[in-house]
Task: structure prediction
Amino acid sequence: MAVKVRVPTPLMKLTDNKSEVTADGSNITEILNNLESQFAGIKERICEDDGTPRRFINIYLNEDDIRFLEGEKTAVKDGDEISIIPAIAGGVN
Amino acid sequence: MSSKPLSFPIPFEVQAPTCPVITDKSVLDQIGNTPLIRIHNIGKEFKNVDIYAKAEWKNAGGSVKSRPALKMIEDGEKSGKLTKDKIILDSTSGNTGIAYALIGKVKGYKVKLVMPANVCKERKGLMADFYGAEIVTSSPFEGSDGAIILAREILEKDPDKYFMPDQYNNDSNWKAHYETTAQEIWKQTNNRITHFLAGIGTGGTIMGTSRGLRSFNPDIECYAVEPAEALHGLEGLKHMESSIVPGIYKEEELSGKISVPTEESYDMVETLEKQEGILVGHSSAAAMLGALKLAAKIESGVIVTVFPDSCERCYVNFGQFKQYYENEPDHKLPQAD
Result:
Protein backbone atom coordinates (compact mmCIF):
# COMPACT_ATOMS: atom_id res chain seq x y z
CA MET A 1 0.00 0.00 0.00
CA ALA A 2 1.43 3.32 -1.01
CA VAL A 3 1.01 6.31 1.24
CA LYS A 4 2.30 9.86 1.14
CA VAL A 5 4.66 10.82 3.98
CA ARG A 6 5.31 14.47 4.81
CA VAL A 7 8.66 14.97 6.54
CA PRO A 8 9.89 17.96 8.56
CA THR A 9 12.60 20.22 7.14
CA PRO A 10 15.39 18.86 9.42
CA LEU A 11 14.96 15.39 7.82
CA MET A 12 14.92 16.57 4.23
CA LYS A 13 18.68 16.19 4.04
CA LEU A 14 18.01 12.45 4.12
CA THR A 15 15.14 12.49 1.60
CA ASP A 16 17.02 14.15 -1.29
CA ASN A 17 15.52 17.47 -0.16
CA LYS A 18 11.95 16.28 -0.69
CA SER A 19 9.27 17.39 1.80
CA GLU A 20 6.93 14.62 0.61
CA VAL A 21 7.90 11.04 -0.17
CA THR A 22 6.02 7.82 -0.88
CA ALA A 23 6.30 4.68 1.24
CA ASP A 24 4.78 1.19 1.27
CA GLY A 25 3.43 -0.74 4.24
CA SER A 26 0.26 -1.83 6.01
CA ASN A 27 1.00 -0.13 9.33
CA ILE A 28 3.17 2.68 10.71
CA THR A 29 6.07 0.36 11.62
CA GLU A 30 6.18 -1.04 8.10
CA ILE A 31 6.03 2.45 6.65
CA LEU A 32 8.97 3.54 8.83
CA ASN A 33 10.95 0.42 7.84
CA ASN A 34 10.20 1.12 4.21
CA LEU A 35 11.35 4.73 4.62
CA GLU A 36 14.58 3.42 6.16
CA SER A 37 15.19 1.17 3.14
CA GLN A 38 14.80 4.19 0.85
CA PHE A 39 16.57 6.77 3.02
CA ALA A 40 19.18 5.13 5.24
CA GLY A 41 19.41 6.63 8.72
CA ILE A 42 15.94 8.18 8.81
CA LYS A 43 14.38 5.66 11.21
CA GLU A 44 16.86 6.19 14.02
CA ARG A 45 16.06 9.91 13.91
CA ILE A 46 12.35 9.17 14.39
CA CYS A 47 12.36 6.05 16.61
CA GLU A 48 13.96 4.60 19.72
CA ASP A 49 16.03 1.42 19.33
CA ASP A 50 12.90 -0.67 20.03
CA GLY A 51 11.06 0.90 17.09
CA THR A 52 8.65 3.09 19.07
CA PRO A 53 8.59 6.76 18.04
CA ARG A 54 10.79 9.05 20.15
CA ARG A 55 8.70 10.93 22.66
CA PHE A 56 9.14 14.33 21.06
CA ILE A 57 8.14 13.16 17.60
CA ASN A 58 4.48 13.38 16.62
CA ILE A 59 3.23 11.12 13.86
CA TYR A 60 -0.17 11.83 12.37
CA LEU A 61 -2.22 9.47 10.22
CA ASN A 62 -4.12 11.94 8.10
CA GLU A 63 -5.25 14.39 10.82
CA ASP A 64 -4.89 12.16 13.88
CA ASP A 65 -2.04 11.66 16.34
CA ILE A 66 -1.17 7.93 16.30
CA ARG A 67 -0.58 8.01 20.06
CA PHE A 68 -4.37 8.07 20.36
CA LEU A 69 -4.91 5.39 17.70
CA GLU A 70 -2.81 2.25 17.99
CA GLY A 71 0.62 3.79 18.07
CA GLU A 72 3.12 2.37 15.61
CA LYS A 73 0.79 -0.60 15.03
CA THR A 74 -1.86 1.71 13.54
CA ALA A 75 -3.02 0.30 10.18
CA VAL A 76 -2.69 2.41 7.07
CA LYS A 77 -4.46 2.10 3.74
CA ASP A 78 -3.91 3.25 0.20
CA GLY A 79 -4.14 7.00 -0.16
CA ASP A 80 -3.54 7.79 3.51
CA GLU A 81 -1.24 10.63 4.39
CA ILE A 82 1.31 10.45 7.20
CA SER A 83 2.90 13.54 8.75
CA ILE A 84 5.98 13.55 10.94
CA ILE A 85 6.66 16.70 13.00
CA PRO A 86 8.61 17.50 16.15
CA ALA A 87 6.24 17.90 19.11
CA ILE A 88 7.54 21.38 19.75
CA ALA A 89 9.15 23.90 17.53
CA GLY A 90 12.80 24.42 18.22
CA GLY A 91 14.71 27.28 16.86
CA VAL A 92 14.27 30.56 18.58
CA ASN A 93 15.65 31.25 21.98
CA MET B 1 17.38 14.86 71.43
CA SER B 2 15.45 16.00 68.39
CA SER B 3 12.84 18.67 68.81
CA LYS B 4 9.17 17.79 68.75
CA PRO B 5 7.31 18.60 65.51
CA LEU B 6 4.92 21.52 65.70
CA SER B 7 1.47 20.42 66.74
CA PHE B 8 -0.19 23.59 65.43
CA PRO B 9 -0.12 25.37 62.10
CA ILE B 10 2.07 28.43 61.64
CA PRO B 11 -0.19 31.50 61.96
CA PHE B 12 -1.23 33.09 58.69
CA GLU B 13 0.44 36.39 59.61
CA VAL B 14 3.79 34.66 59.80
CA GLN B 15 3.36 33.01 56.41
CA ALA B 16 2.34 36.17 54.59
CA PRO B 17 5.13 37.58 52.44
CA THR B 18 6.14 41.15 53.10
CA CYS B 19 5.78 42.90 49.77
CA PRO B 20 4.29 46.25 48.81
CA VAL B 21 0.67 46.19 47.72
CA ILE B 22 0.90 49.29 45.60
CA THR B 23 3.81 50.24 43.36
CA ASP B 24 4.19 52.94 40.77
CA LYS B 25 7.20 51.25 39.18
CA SER B 26 6.78 50.10 35.61
CA VAL B 27 6.72 46.37 35.10
CA LEU B 28 9.49 46.97 32.56
CA ASP B 29 11.81 47.93 35.43
CA GLN B 30 11.59 44.30 36.42
CA ILE B 31 13.70 43.27 33.44
CA GLY B 32 17.32 42.47 34.26
CA ASN B 33 19.12 42.08 37.60
CA THR B 34 18.08 38.46 37.96
CA PRO B 35 19.44 36.23 40.72
CA LEU B 36 22.48 34.03 40.15
CA ILE B 37 21.67 30.60 41.54
CA ARG B 38 24.37 28.29 42.91
CA ILE B 39 23.87 24.70 41.73
CA HIS B 40 24.51 22.79 44.94
CA ASN B 41 23.95 19.11 44.31
CA ILE B 42 24.18 18.35 40.61
CA GLY B 43 27.83 18.14 39.61
CA LYS B 44 29.15 18.08 43.16
CA GLU B 45 31.54 15.31 42.10
CA PHE B 46 33.55 18.05 40.38
CA LYS B 47 35.11 19.25 43.61
CA ASN B 48 37.00 22.25 42.27
CA VAL B 49 34.29 23.49 39.94
CA ASP B 50 31.46 25.81 40.97
CA ILE B 51 28.39 26.00 38.74
CA TYR B 52 25.99 28.95 38.74
CA ALA B 53 22.94 29.78 36.64
CA LYS B 54 21.17 33.06 35.94
CA ALA B 55 17.50 32.68 36.88
CA GLU B 56 16.15 34.45 33.83
CA TRP B 57 12.52 33.51 34.41
CA LYS B 58 12.60 36.21 37.08
CA ASN B 59 12.45 38.86 34.37
CA ALA B 60 9.08 40.46 33.73
CA GLY B 61 7.75 38.50 30.75
CA GLY B 62 9.14 35.31 32.28
CA SER B 63 12.28 34.72 30.24
CA VAL B 64 15.72 35.87 29.19
CA LYS B 65 14.21 37.27 26.01
CA SER B 66 12.71 40.26 27.81
CA ARG B 67 16.20 41.81 27.86
CA PRO B 68 16.81 41.91 24.09
CA ALA B 69 13.12 42.54 23.29
CA LEU B 70 13.13 45.68 25.44
CA LYS B 71 16.38 46.95 23.98
CA MET B 72 15.35 46.24 20.38
CA ILE B 73 12.08 48.12 20.92
CA GLU B 74 13.66 51.06 22.74
CA ASP B 75 16.46 51.35 20.18
CA GLY B 76 13.77 51.26 17.49
CA GLU B 77 12.04 54.17 19.22
CA LYS B 78 15.29 56.14 19.52
CA SER B 79 16.14 55.63 15.84
CA GLY B 80 12.67 56.79 14.81
CA LYS B 81 11.94 53.51 13.00
CA LEU B 82 9.33 52.51 15.57
CA THR B 83 6.50 54.99 15.81
CA LYS B 84 3.10 54.65 17.46
CA ASP B 85 1.34 53.87 14.17
CA LYS B 86 3.56 50.83 13.51
CA ILE B 87 2.83 47.22 14.42
CA ILE B 88 5.73 45.30 15.96
CA LEU B 89 6.19 42.18 13.81
CA ASP B 90 8.67 39.31 14.33
CA SER B 91 9.08 35.54 14.24
CA THR B 92 9.47 33.64 17.50
CA SER B 93 8.93 30.23 19.04
CA GLY B 94 7.57 31.79 22.19
CA ASN B 95 9.67 33.70 24.67
CA THR B 96 10.60 36.69 22.52
CA GLY B 97 6.96 36.87 21.47
CA ILE B 98 5.74 36.99 25.06
CA ALA B 99 8.28 39.73 25.78
CA TYR B 100 7.22 41.78 22.72
CA ALA B 101 3.57 41.34 23.67
CA LEU B 102 4.13 42.48 27.25
CA ILE B 103 6.29 45.45 26.27
CA GLY B 104 3.90 46.35 23.46
CA LYS B 105 0.98 46.35 25.89
CA VAL B 106 2.80 48.57 28.38
CA LYS B 107 4.06 50.99 25.74
CA GLY B 108 0.91 50.99 23.60
CA TYR B 109 2.00 49.14 20.44
CA LYS B 110 0.14 46.45 18.54
CA VAL B 111 2.14 43.25 18.20
CA LYS B 112 1.97 40.56 15.51
CA LEU B 113 3.93 37.35 16.00
CA VAL B 114 4.73 34.59 13.53
CA MET B 115 5.37 31.21 15.10
CA PRO B 116 5.30 27.58 13.99
CA ALA B 117 1.90 25.93 14.51
CA ASN B 118 3.51 23.37 16.85
CA VAL B 119 4.76 25.71 19.60
CA CYS B 120 3.71 25.01 23.19
CA LYS B 121 0.10 26.17 23.65
CA GLU B 122 0.89 27.63 27.08
CA ARG B 123 3.03 30.21 25.31
CA LYS B 124 0.67 30.96 22.45
CA GLY B 125 -2.20 31.19 24.93
CA LEU B 126 -0.35 33.56 27.21
CA MET B 127 0.49 35.91 24.38
CA ALA B 128 -2.78 35.89 22.51
CA ASP B 129 -5.18 35.95 25.43
CA PHE B 130 -3.39 37.87 28.09
CA TYR B 131 -1.22 40.37 26.30
CA GLY B 132 -3.41 40.71 23.23
CA ALA B 133 -0.89 39.96 20.48
CA GLU B 134 -2.00 38.74 17.08
CA ILE B 135 -0.61 35.30 16.26
CA VAL B 136 0.07 34.03 12.74
CA THR B 137 1.10 30.39 12.53
CA SER B 138 3.61 29.00 10.04
CA SER B 139 4.04 25.40 8.88
CA PRO B 140 4.76 22.93 11.70
CA PHE B 141 7.05 21.04 9.30
CA GLU B 142 9.40 23.96 8.84
CA GLY B 143 10.16 24.92 12.46
CA SER B 144 11.48 28.36 13.26
CA ASP B 145 12.98 28.87 9.81
CA GLY B 146 9.48 28.66 8.33
CA ALA B 147 8.37 31.39 10.76
CA ILE B 148 11.34 33.59 9.80
CA ILE B 149 10.48 33.30 6.10
CA LEU B 150 6.76 33.97 6.66
CA ALA B 151 7.47 37.04 8.81
CA ARG B 152 9.70 38.44 6.05
CA GLU B 153 6.92 37.86 3.48
CA ILE B 154 4.37 39.68 5.65
CA LEU B 155 6.79 42.60 6.01
CA GLU B 156 7.57 42.77 2.29
CA LYS B 157 3.89 42.98 1.38
CA ASP B 158 3.32 46.00 3.60
CA PRO B 159 6.66 47.46 4.73
CA ASP B 160 5.28 50.77 6.03
CA LYS B 161 2.80 49.09 8.33
CA TYR B 162 5.33 47.23 10.48
CA PHE B 163 8.42 47.61 12.61
CA MET B 164 10.33 44.33 12.45
CA PRO B 165 13.03 44.10 15.14
CA ASP B 166 14.39 40.97 13.34
CA GLN B 167 15.95 39.46 16.43
CA TYR B 168 18.30 37.27 14.36
CA ASN B 169 20.04 40.20 12.74
CA ASN B 170 19.59 43.06 15.19
CA ASP B 171 22.72 44.17 17.06
CA SER B 172 20.53 45.48 19.89
CA ASN B 173 19.79 41.83 20.67
CA TRP B 174 23.36 40.91 21.67
CA LYS B 175 24.06 44.38 23.05
CA ALA B 176 21.29 43.91 25.64
CA HIS B 177 23.37 41.08 27.08
CA TYR B 178 26.64 42.96 26.67
CA GLU B 179 25.25 45.83 28.71
CA THR B 180 23.27 43.93 31.34
CA THR B 181 23.74 40.15 31.64
CA ALA B 182 27.54 40.25 31.41
CA GLN B 183 27.83 43.10 33.93
CA GLU B 184 25.58 41.31 36.39
CA ILE B 185 27.48 38.00 36.13
CA TRP B 186 30.83 39.73 36.57
CA LYS B 187 29.61 41.44 39.76
CA GLN B 188 27.63 38.49 41.11
CA THR B 189 30.63 36.15 40.87
CA ASN B 190 32.98 38.74 42.38
CA ASN B 191 34.97 38.63 39.13
CA ARG B 192 35.63 34.90 39.65
CA ILE B 193 33.92 33.54 36.52
CA THR B 194 36.27 31.49 34.32
CA HIS B 195 33.81 29.79 31.94
CA PHE B 196 30.52 30.92 30.42
CA LEU B 197 28.08 28.89 28.36
CA ALA B 198 24.59 29.46 26.96
CA GLY B 199 22.18 27.83 24.55
CA ILE B 200 21.95 29.21 21.02
CA GLY B 201 18.70 30.34 19.44
CA THR B 202 19.41 33.71 17.89
CA GLY B 203 22.90 33.70 19.40
CA GLY B 204 22.15 36.98 21.22
CA THR B 205 22.77 35.65 24.75
CA ILE B 206 26.01 33.84 23.97
CA MET B 207 27.51 36.58 21.77
CA GLY B 208 26.59 39.58 23.92
CA THR B 209 27.41 38.03 27.29
CA SER B 210 30.69 36.54 26.01
CA ARG B 211 31.83 39.86 24.57
CA GLY B 212 30.84 41.67 27.75
CA LEU B 213 32.60 39.21 30.04
CA ARG B 214 35.74 39.22 27.91
CA SER B 215 35.86 43.00 28.11
CA PHE B 216 36.47 42.44 31.83
CA ASN B 217 38.72 39.39 31.44
CA PRO B 218 39.76 38.25 27.95
CA ASP B 219 40.71 34.79 29.26
CA ILE B 220 37.12 33.75 30.04
CA GLU B 221 36.20 30.75 27.91
CA CYS B 222 32.79 30.90 26.24
CA TYR B 223 30.83 27.97 24.81
CA ALA B 224 27.57 27.66 22.89
CA VAL B 225 25.18 24.82 23.76
CA GLU B 226 23.27 23.33 20.84
CA PRO B 227 20.98 20.36 20.19
CA ALA B 228 22.94 17.26 19.17
CA GLU B 229 20.69 16.60 16.17
CA ALA B 230 18.91 18.57 13.46
CA LEU B 231 15.56 17.01 14.43
CA HIS B 232 15.28 17.73 18.12
CA GLY B 233 12.74 18.54 20.81
CA LEU B 234 14.44 21.38 22.65
CA GLU B 235 12.17 24.35 22.44
CA GLY B 236 14.08 27.55 21.89
CA LEU B 237 17.35 26.03 20.68
CA LYS B 238 18.74 25.95 17.18
CA HIS B 239 20.92 23.34 15.48
CA MET B 240 23.13 25.73 13.53
CA GLU B 241 24.44 23.42 10.84
CA SER B 242 20.92 22.68 9.58
CA SER B 243 19.33 26.11 10.15
CA ILE B 244 19.37 29.63 8.77
CA VAL B 245 22.40 30.99 10.67
CA PRO B 246 21.51 34.28 12.42
CA GLY B 247 23.51 37.30 11.28
CA ILE B 248 24.48 38.17 14.85
CA TYR B 249 25.93 34.71 15.58
CA LYS B 250 29.72 34.61 15.13
CA GLU B 251 30.87 31.14 15.99
CA GLU B 252 34.53 31.96 15.36
CA GLU B 253 34.60 34.17 18.47
CA LEU B 254 33.63 31.30 20.76
CA SER B 255 35.87 28.77 22.50
CA GLY B 256 33.70 25.91 21.22
CA LYS B 257 30.28 24.27 21.05
CA ILE B 258 28.76 21.64 23.34
CA SER B 259 26.11 19.29 21.92
CA VAL B 260 23.27 17.99 24.07
CA PRO B 261 20.75 15.26 23.22
CA THR B 262 17.01 15.95 23.59
CA GLU B 263 16.14 12.99 25.82
CA GLU B 264 18.97 13.67 28.28
CA SER B 265 17.78 17.26 28.55
CA TYR B 266 14.24 16.13 29.40
CA ASP B 267 15.68 13.92 32.13
CA MET B 268 17.69 16.86 33.41
CA VAL B 269 14.48 18.91 33.84
CA GLU B 270 13.42 16.27 36.34
CA THR B 271 16.84 16.06 37.99
CA LEU B 272 16.92 19.83 38.49
CA GLU B 273 13.50 19.72 40.06
CA LYS B 274 14.38 16.85 42.40
CA GLN B 275 17.91 17.80 43.36
CA GLU B 276 17.88 21.59 43.25
CA GLY B 277 14.19 22.33 43.74
CA ILE B 278 13.88 24.44 40.61
CA LEU B 279 11.49 23.84 37.74
CA VAL B 280 12.87 25.05 34.45
CA GLY B 281 12.26 24.66 30.72
CA HIS B 282 14.14 22.46 28.26
CA SER B 283 16.67 25.03 27.24
CA SER B 284 17.70 25.51 30.89
CA ALA B 285 18.11 21.77 31.32
CA ALA B 286 20.17 21.67 28.13
CA ALA B 287 22.37 24.45 29.54
CA MET B 288 22.78 22.46 32.77
CA LEU B 289 23.83 19.38 30.80
CA GLY B 290 26.31 21.50 28.89
CA ALA B 291 27.69 22.86 32.16
CA LEU B 292 28.24 19.32 33.44
CA LYS B 293 30.03 18.33 30.24
CA LEU B 294 32.25 21.35 30.60
CA ALA B 295 32.86 20.68 34.31
CA ALA B 296 34.06 17.17 33.41
CA LYS B 297 36.63 18.65 31.04
CA ILE B 298 38.17 21.29 33.29
CA GLU B 299 40.05 20.70 36.52
CA SER B 300 38.84 23.76 38.31
CA GLY B 301 36.86 26.89 37.61
CA VAL B 302 33.71 28.92 38.04
CA ILE B 303 31.14 28.07 35.39
CA VAL B 304 28.17 30.34 34.76
CA THR B 305 25.27 29.50 32.48
CA VAL B 306 21.85 30.95 31.73
CA PHE B 307 18.51 29.31 32.54
CA PRO B 308 16.22 31.03 30.01
CA ASP B 309 12.77 30.17 31.33
CA SER B 310 10.68 28.08 33.68
CA CYS B 311 7.33 27.23 32.02
CA GLU B 312 6.04 25.73 35.24
CA ARG B 313 3.62 22.85 35.48
CA CYS B 314 3.94 22.01 31.80
CA TYR B 315 4.03 18.29 30.91
CA VAL B 316 6.08 19.23 27.86
CA ASN B 317 8.92 20.16 30.19
CA PHE B 318 9.37 16.56 31.18
CA GLY B 319 9.01 15.23 27.68
CA GLN B 320 5.65 13.70 28.70
CA PHE B 321 3.95 14.46 25.45
CA LYS B 322 1.27 11.80 25.70
CA GLN B 323 0.01 13.23 28.99
CA TYR B 324 0.29 16.69 27.53
CA TYR B 325 -1.80 15.87 24.49
CA GLU B 326 -4.37 14.01 26.61
CA ASN B 327 -5.29 17.40 28.03
CA GLU B 328 -5.75 18.91 24.59
CA PRO B 329 -9.26 19.26 23.18
CA ASP B 330 -8.27 17.28 20.10
CA HIS B 331 -5.27 15.39 18.81
CA LYS B 332 -5.21 16.78 15.31
CA LEU B 333 -2.34 17.79 13.08
CA PRO B 334 -1.56 21.47 13.81
CA GLN B 335 -2.23 23.69 10.80
CA ALA B 336 -0.54 26.82 9.55
CA ASP B 337 -2.77 29.85 8.92
Remarks:
- Chain A has a mean pLDDT of 91.
- Helices of chain A lie at 28-38, 42-46.
- Residues 3 and 39 of chain A are 16 Å apart (CA to CA).
